[in-house]
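Preliminary data (for renewal application), NA7 complex.
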Amino acid sequence: MVSEIEQQQDPSLTKVDAVVVGAGFAGLYMLHLLRDKLGLKAAVFEAADDVGGTWYWNRYPGARCDIPSHHYSYSFSKQLQQDWVWTEKYSDQAEILKYLEYVAERFDLKRDIQFKTQVVSAHFDDECQRWIVANKDGKRYSAKYFIPAVGTLSSANIPKFKGHGSFKGDTYFTGKWPIGGVDFKGKKVAIIGTGATAIQVIPVVAEDAEHLTVFQRTPNYAAPLQNEAMTEEEDRKLKASYDQLREDSWNSFAGVPFPKLKATALADTEEQRKAHFEDLWQEGGFSLWIGSYQDILYDKAANETAADFVRSKIRQRVNDPKIADMLCPPKGQTYGTKRQPCETGYFEAYNRDNVSLVDIKKAPIVEITPEGLRTSDASYAFDCLIYATGYDAFTGSLYKMDIKGRNGMPLQTYWSYGPRTFLGLAANGFPNMFTITGPQSPSVLFNMPLGIEIHCEWIADCIDYMNSHNLTTIEPERSREDEWLAETKEIADATLLPEATSWYMGANIPGKPRVFMVYLGGGKHYKDIIDGVAAKGYAGFKFT
Ligand code: NA7
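Predicted structure:
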């Protein structure tokens, strides 16, 4: 606990036990554990004016979760699970945000969260062995523990096109959508990007806009979400079996069970394969991607069977064969090595008269103009421009905070060849700093709320261990980072995923090192590893 004497030593610093940055799923649960389980004084800083994190900012039309609602929620409180009512199989942004607001109220979390507060630096002070965290408002905090809970997809990627900023119409970013929404009625709208986000936006904006022009660089293998309203009966059934449902999730690869998963696509006949794919296509969400055949993410021939299946579906749904050709990922572009977007009426949007598709791989965007944009072969004019161009994933938000470890080492410099961590939780030279669902953990390839719980509970237990053993700092041995780096790489290299130009690889950001940033060993295996490390007195970590 923070002592009165410490507090009085430097009155310009507010002393707390822990600083947590972010009030999304991760920050809220971390605060709950630190304050209500461990009895510590934690300060949470959040740039937005309310809780929600990613779900606060991403209010774009069509924003929705691709993991079923009953899974995409906290499991730590059985009563909370029973009390909250999800109204759709896959919740939309507004409902998830309401849920997080409800959680914050129910556990009385807001009183320890400072909203509209941006962290501008977090430096480890070698002398006092504490983190000094400075906020934009000039206030400074001294904390024993520094816990960035900033989300993996929260720093927008805005391409630096020539003429950027010259557009005279309205510009929107999906990751920072205006509260209250945007009325596109009677407007000519353009959207850059056809990733998971754009695929949610396009069919909704197409309904309203006078005209929507989609600028596509790479077509995507999207599969239907198959969302529907949650019936009371289904809600009751799911809630009655919540213990089993969670148990199955903890024991699964991705934090959501996919019980129809088979080992190899090539062992089935073509008819069997098609029937299996069709069944999972109808089931929706990530079923085809994660729940069909294991080897589609390992073996190119197996992968091609799934790719062919999705292409055939796109052709069935798009009326104009030329547009269908443009929307079909070409042979050689592997299926599912980039995150599979889930869609609702995406392909049908291109059957509308008011939607057009422009191939910017063939004719790239040359510049943004006051009227719209110019590609290498035409100019386009519109009233509104939407950037759905993705995120500087995993590291973007961490680097924005100017984090410096021992001897003033910037995190960005330490990770200049790509992130290096032990267990995806901590880095050598950055004592008492823990990343939640950060690089080299199962992170975005595991059901986020459950992955967050795994990390928050591990971190809370570690802090409890340190405090009860009177330890000042903890950080991993560098050699253990090397081993974890090698293990993460080896597991990823056995799959087809590192070949894709995906944000998993940092390949969407010019100049970013290309390394696979997710631990692909599966959630169950990962949890066993980190629990094993804790059980052995945090083997691989050193203490002072
Ligand atoms: P993604 O999946 O990174 O998609 C971004 C899209 O923007 C994608 O179509 C990109 O084309 C396109 N893009 C990015 N930069 C450019 C430039 N410079 N020129 C043209 N087009 C560009 O981000 P999302 O937001 O859709 O999804 C991210 C995750 O958020 C999602 O998986 C969920 O987990 C939530 P490219 O494919 O690079 O050719």
